[in-house]
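Ligand: nicotinamide-adenine-dinucleotide. Inputs:
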Amino acid sequence: MILLDGKVLAQKIKEDIKKNIENLVSKGYRPPTLSVILVGDNPASQIYVNKKIKDCQEVGINSKPFFLPRDITQLELEELIGSLNGDDEVDGILVQLPLPSHINTLEVIEYINPKKDVDGFHPENVGKLATGRDDGILPCTPYGIMRLLQEYNIDTFGKDVVIVGASNIVGKPMALLFLKDEKSTVTICHKNTRDLKSHTSKADILVVATGVPHLIKADMVKKGAVVVDVGINRIDGKIVGDVDFENVKEKVYAITPVPGGVGPMTVAMLLQNTFDIYKRKFTS
Ligand code: NAD
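Predicted complex:
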């Protein structure tokens, strides 16, 4: 069994970005800047944001954090985004999700300049992905999964891919990436799928992003499959995935660990997107 080690690959990618930034800064360019907006005090979101800020620092990206009160209005939030949209020194804008329920998340995402949309959630970037264009910004988690599969030479051509979870941030864009150039045959399952096992057990590549701890058991996975576990669930202070790793690992060709699989790749792709937006400004 091959362990798809996202931590090791993410580190390699970060070192590469760091070198590239050092090189450009030594030539007189300013460093890249990523604005990170956190609304409220959701503990998980705080952990994610702090990790993103730390990783930015590690590679030489200037992070510009905004910690906003939970009761901020839609208008106030959009005004801040508007000012960042118009600031030439700001390359990327990230709004940490979820937002409090009084805020319309889709409208906030639409308010971000699509060229600064480091998360790749803006409808313009989603549309570019859906229509197979290469000039959009890819959402970090599916992008990171593709990079991880490439690193381990896992070919997706002609493969049966099953994705469990159909969210806008993971499941749906993941499906579109596998569909690109009509490489894979894709099935998306979700909470209303009948007989989940009948689908998952046919998958050559199985991607699971549900937030249901240990949803996928060994008898739901085909022998020799590649399994990618996106889930992050906290149980008794321990982080576990959506896949019953200990039992599933015995029968697969390759599998991601949780933690240390998809998570670090997601942050690495955030840095990659920020760097790519910045670089495009100076080279195009
Ligand atoms: P979400 O809640 O937006 O969507 C969950 C999806 O799973 C939905 O489509 C739902 O229909 C489906 N689902 C729920 N229960 C199911 C069941 N019993 N059978 C089949 N499908 C079911 O979640 P999300 O934002 O896509 O995140 C999913 C998980 O991935 C969470 O644990 C989240 O923390 C994690 N996540 C991890 C990363 C990372 O970088 N590793 C990034 C994003 C999300």
